[in-house]
Amino acid sequence: MKPIHLIPLGLPSGPGGGLVAPALDDLEQLAAALARTFRTPCRIQPQTLDVSFSFNERRGQYYSTAIIQRLERTADRDARVLGVTACDLFVPVLTFVFGEAQLDGNCAVVSTARLGEEFYGLPMRADLTRERLLKEASHELGHTFGLRHCSDWRCVMTSSHAVERLDVKESTFCGVCQKPVWQNSRSFF
């Protein structure tokens, strides 16, 4: 199975500044959880990709498909690539997306923008945000294995258009969805 490469996605912090991206601690925890879930090495790439090119002024959001296309052009073809950002993502037919992936491809993107309780006016809960991020990352990576949305509401591949739906489902694949993911996996621990 291909390894997973996490690519931090960020925005310029200001004139002459670096890029602001998800916290390294959050990425490290996500990488460790994804390595266990997919039974393959998962590492964080050292370079942060600037996603300001994907900003849509009218919507005030970032176009996830454009980000995936950029990831595809720059990514290692021998790995599955997951871009992780705090930018609010969209596709034209939806108000927002938590993430997007290439079906049967190598690239996916997820956003933490709407995963935190603070987005909804509630006190921050880092543990809940990380749990939601793992579910969304696993879901989008599942699409790269050719998986479509699952009818089992507990499966990580069930569709989630609100955080309440993310909270109900589990962070694991159902038996049917798990087969294509683990079919080519190898034990590396």
Q: Which structural class should the secondary elements be placed in?
A: alpha/beta
User: Per DSSP, what share of the residues sits in E-state strands of 2 or more residues?
Assistant: 15-25%
Mean pLDDT: 91
Give the helix tally: 5
Helical amount = 25-40%
Largest sheet, described in full? 7 strands, mixed
Shape: globular
**Which radius of gyration do the C-alpha atoms yield?**
16 Å
Number of strands: 10
Termini separation (Å)? 14 Å
Order of helices and strands: EEHEEEEHEEEEHHH
Poorly predicted ranges: none
Q: If you had to describe this structure to a student in words, what would you say it looks like?
A:
It is built from 5 helices and 10 strands; from the N terminus they run ββαββββαββββααα. It starts with a strand and ends in a 7-residue tail after the last helix. It has 189 residues and is an alpha/beta fold. The model has no long low-confidence stretch (mean pLDDT 91). The protein is globular, with a radius of gyration of 16 Å. Helix 1 crosses helix 3 (126-144).
